[in-house]
Amino acid sequence: MKSRQRISIAQTQRLQLNLGLTASIRILSSDAEGLTRYLEEQAGENPHIQLERVQSAEWLPRWTSVLPRMAHGDGPPVEAAGAAGPSLMAHVMGQIDRLFPKGPERRIAMLLAEGLEPTGWLGADPVQVAGQARVAVAEVEAVLAHLQRIEPAGLFARNLAECLRLQAVEAGCLDPVLATMFDHLDLVAQGAHARLARMCGTDEAAILSRLRLIRGFDPKPGAQFDPGAAPVREPDLIATKTDAGWEVALNRSALPSVRIRKPDKRPATAAARAVWTQAQAVGRMIETRNATLLRVAREILARQEAALDEGPAALVPLTMADVAGALEIHESTVSRVVSGTCVDTPRGTWWLRRMFSGRVAEGGPSAAAVRAAISELVAQEDAAAPLSDAALAEALAARDMPLARRTVAKYREILNIPPAHRRRRRPVRVA
Fold this sequence. Notes:
Blueprint: H1 19-28, H2 32-45, E1 49-52, H3 59-71, H4 88-99, H5 104-114, H6 126-133, H7 137-147, H8 160-171, H9 176-183, H10 185-190, H11 193-200, H12 204-215, E2 237-242, E3 245-250, E4 257-260, H13 270-303, H14 305-310, H15 320-327, H16 331-338, E5 342-345, E6 348-351, H17 367-380, H18 389-398, H19 405-414, H20 420-423
Parallel strand pairs: 2-5
Antiparallel strand pairs: 1-4, 2-3, 5-6
Helix pairs in contact: 1-13, 4-5, 5-6, 5-7, 6-7, 8-9, 11-12, 13-15, 15-16, 17-19, 18-19
């Protein structure tokens, strides 16, 4: 039987997004870095779009004010492990095992590790460590120099300048101009670019180019191991506690301001009018994006105030649907806004998405809070007698987090924390 070809007509439905809607979705879901690239592209093509960057180093005073507080204990515990991956101390101990498997250098390294702060800075004085180990200060300095090569760069720094300098050395970009800026971070924080240029014998453009390099460094490398910690880059938002409560603002130094320049006279051609209309549309979309981002971030942080005050262990159950319902917007809008967006807090830079967490059980704590609590308990345990899963369950119950031992073991494994018998360590004996 021969088959014959037939022509038939069928009707189908298909949703096609126009260019304006596509651009709006792209802008809404972009972080500051991605949005900056988009705006630079638009400004290069459209003469009506002008970008104005905040040249003052408004992010640096926050570093210099927050880090000293955290370095003296006003911050998350040293072993607050991330949602997955080793804790800061576990990472450091693994590197010490590799660098100093035995001998007097290992004893010195262990004493220095005991002085490591949540930020990754060294809180112990090498002179005091030398006294404890009964060795010369030069021996401690030599071991410290090896520990300062541990990734991520900046660990075991004794101050902010040294932390940034170590990262510049690692990146291979340390030059006399950058070194002078590290020696005068107070002037960098003040935005005294002209004065720094005179001190370095260069121009302001060179200072600004080094400033962009510094923005890529991490002032608290140890915080990368905190729950919900974001990777190294400038945050999109800044959360600050005031007398009236927590306030959230856009990080203006991370995103250029957009100014739409009105033409001197009415565009004469259709093409010129289209360019002007496109510029206006970009301006409106940026305003909408920033307003929506602030609304969503404020709602999230208002519900997670306890975590901002006490740390990730205080995160309460929260879903995107909760936020969307409170703001009367679509859940997909919340998802796009928080995607890739991070907020700088006194306890580190966190992903907004990490502040959402479901419940472990009906009426129980959030899964994020349980993970943070287990990390904290493990960080504070006696290394010679680590807590078993049953002991962790008892400790969590005392914190109003009643969980079965098997559930505790599941979350411990999610955190990549080994069982108690593998965490046991012999105490360091000082000769």
